[in-house]
Design a protein that fits this description.
With 195 residues, the chain is an alpha/beta fold. It is built from 5 helices and 7 strands. It has one domain: Rossmann fold, CATH 3.40.50.150. The protein is 33% helix and 20% strand. A 7-stranded mixed sheet has the order 3-2-1-4-5-7-6, sandwiched between helices. Strand 4, helix 4 and strand 5 form a beta-alpha-beta unit. It starts with 5 loop residues before the first helix and ends in an 8-residue tail after the last strand.
Length: 195
């Protein structure tokens, strides 16, 4: 047995949380890798919301789906902040969401995710997700804004009641150069019990 690397472990967590027909959310479409993966897991009968504020990222995502010849009629590509997720759910309740924080790989490194939008999005998702749903946040903090976002997210996730959600942190503690880590949040109460 080997210790799973960060990104394969993310996919394992998502696969264990999703089934054919479920709704999933890619909060940071980037180059489309997670959107494609989520579409493959939820299948033809599922639904994927894929957010990015950059048109370029959504174009990359659409091309990735088309290059793989994946029917993406059930994938909604949304050029908006993931902080506005409630505007786009239209009755859907995601069973899993993935955030890859930081900047678009190969893109403009001055356009980065922000702690306020990420925390707003996570709060909103927790209010509508069913019991057992997961939110996976991959925290990249090798840049100044990333360090601020890391600190804000750790403060926020530590403040969540364990009655509402369980939060786990997965990381390699002896890597150099600010290696990314995962925050995995499991919803403990169903949305119908949160009122």
């Amino acid at each position: 047995m080997s210790v799973p690397k960060i990104l394969p472990f993310v996919r394992t967590l998502l696969e264990e949380s999703l089934s054919e027909g479920d709704t999933a959310m890619d909060a940071t479409a980037g180059n489309g890798h997670d959107t494609l993966f989520l579409r493959e897991v939820v299948g033809h009968t599922g639904y994927v919301l894929s957010f990015d504020i950059q048109k370029e990222a959504l174009q990359h995502t659409k091309k990735r789906l088309e290059d793989r010849q994946i029917d993406h009629s059930n994938v909604e590509l949304i050029q908006d902040s993931h902080a506005n997720v409630m505007t786009y759910l239209n009755g859907h309740s995601p069973k899993a969401a993935i955030f890859n924080l930081g900047y678009l790989p190969g893109g403009d490194k001055t356009i980065v995710t922000s702690p306020s939008s990420t925390i707003t999005s996570v709060r909103q998702l927790l209010s509508v997700m069913p019991r057992g749903a997961v939110i996976i946040i991959v925290v990249y903090y090798g840049h100044e804004e990333g360090k601020k976002e890391r600190d804000a997210l750790l403060k926020f996730t530590c403040s969540l009641s364990h009655h509402e959600a369980l939060v786990a942190r997965y990381e390699f503690i002896n890597h150099t150069n600010d290696p990314p880590f995962i925050l995995a949040i499991e919803k403990r109460k169903g949305a119908e019990n949160d009122a």
